[in-house]
# Entry
Amino acid sequence: MLHRRRSATAVRLGAPTTRPRGVRAPIHLGRARPHRGNHVSTTTPPPEGPGGPEYLEQGGGEPAPRSSSGGGGRRTALVAGGAVAVLALAGAGTWAAMSFLGSGAQPAEALPAGTLGYASIDLDPSGSQKIEAVRTLNKFPAIKEELGLAADDDLRRKIFEEALTDCDSVSYADDVEPWLGNAFAVAAVDTGEEQPSPVFVAEISDAAAAEEGLTAVREGCGSEEGGWSIEGDWAVAAETDEIAQQVTDAAAEGTLADDSDYQDWMAEVGDEGVITMYAAPEAGPLMADLMASDLAGMAQGGMPGGMGPQGAVPEELTAQLEEFPGAAATVRFADGAAELEFVGGVAATGVLESDAEGVDTVTSLPADTAAAFGMALPDGWGQKLLDQMSSMSGGQMDPEQLVAQAEQMTGLSLPEDLEALLGDSTAIALGGDFSAEALANSSDGSDVPVGIKVDGDAAEVQRVLDQLTTTFGPGFEQVLGSDADDDTVAVGPNADYRSDLLADGGLGDSEAFQRVVPEADSSSVVLFVNFDAGDWLSGLTAGDDQAAANTEPLDSLGFSVWQDDEVSHGLLKLTTD
# Structure
């Protein structure tokens, strides 16, 4: 169970970490679950079978809170270097970083329970995942050339030498390697200042060597700023010695690793991966305050388009941030697989909030589908979308005017007709024999396997289609051609493909689909791409040898979102041949 959000004063360093009662109703998380199946593990990879795909997975998530220092001066070399080392993962270094990973102590053990935002990575140059990761990444020529990874590389050296590029007198071999461990993190910690303090945490193997090395880094980077605190197996770097020691002292009273919210969200996200991200419940109100402060500053500064009285943070957004229950995400990479999964509280006003069990319009598509995107749509989603757009605009958008313009253009009655057109579940799909060349050369689309599958009131769907044809003219009759079977409607220019869409093609039973959308039966949003379906991918890269070489290893891609009680889950996964 997620506990109630701490009060603003309770999260400051040195303050108690118990929550006051009555702040808000607790959110009940599902039981901690093991990772799905065996597509990710930390064991040595099994022998590669003939034709069997490998997995390269990633999943998306809610962002950790923005951290900012209170000072206006140059960020210290220590904090900036640490941030670069971890945040460089957002670029090409992400793939490299995920390949040299192990397990062991985690930086959350060195941070206080009141930490607002946290992102960690565990780099183990001798980890069992290393060989498999390098082998998979090197399938992509561009990645292989850019990163130059080998099985015996020390990724720590690569990251820190990049972070310390401007520090000519600093030697990784002499000043860093003798004490540097495998686990690192950047965090935003409430130290009682106006804004959170950025902190960098590194695992160390030798406290004395770390003290000497950090001193050498600060001096070698030509900075008198930056401070650190060393305690046990961890070095905490911040903008000053005082802040670093404050963080260390607070962690001695209670660590993030022992915090109930952190534990609950880590349990909900499943097996921890090589990269771990966490946003505390207190991060929501903080973001609301920072946004309000930033907008007020813009208005006072007279910036073009600055926010005036109507430019305040929308009330609905503020309310959502105030009730933010926390979130977590993890990246897993092993046995040729990588996966990013996120979890967060379900927003009470979410447009697509749905307890639907699967998107049948996707799982029933033809088994050779090249690409598909589908959603299960809750009752009243159209009106809710308009209301949310109006609220999020801060009152600067008139939904009635927007609807009136759209109705004039389409001849529809909105949002009712749009809800009727898309039914309870809708999917758009491309057939396995899709060809970009055929699409470009087609005069009416009648030979292009593209269409929309709708589960809903067939008569209502046809009524809306007829109105659109009347509005846009006879030229749209082919594009909006339709066939129905009971409550299922297929829409598209290709009559043969419409017939395929109406049948239960069994996409959900195909191995390619199940590998990348393992929670299909519970998902309300599904994206699927089969790179091996037909020749559509090779057709897109024809004439570009480099693009062809770098897409050839791709097998399938999946993204799915599902809800478990009051927790929203998301998963993005990519497999390779």
Observations:
- The chain has two domains: 9-47+54-281, 357-532.
- The chain is about 35% helix and 20% strand.
- Residues 156 and 513 are 36 Å apart (CA to CA).
- The chain has a mean pLDDT of 79.
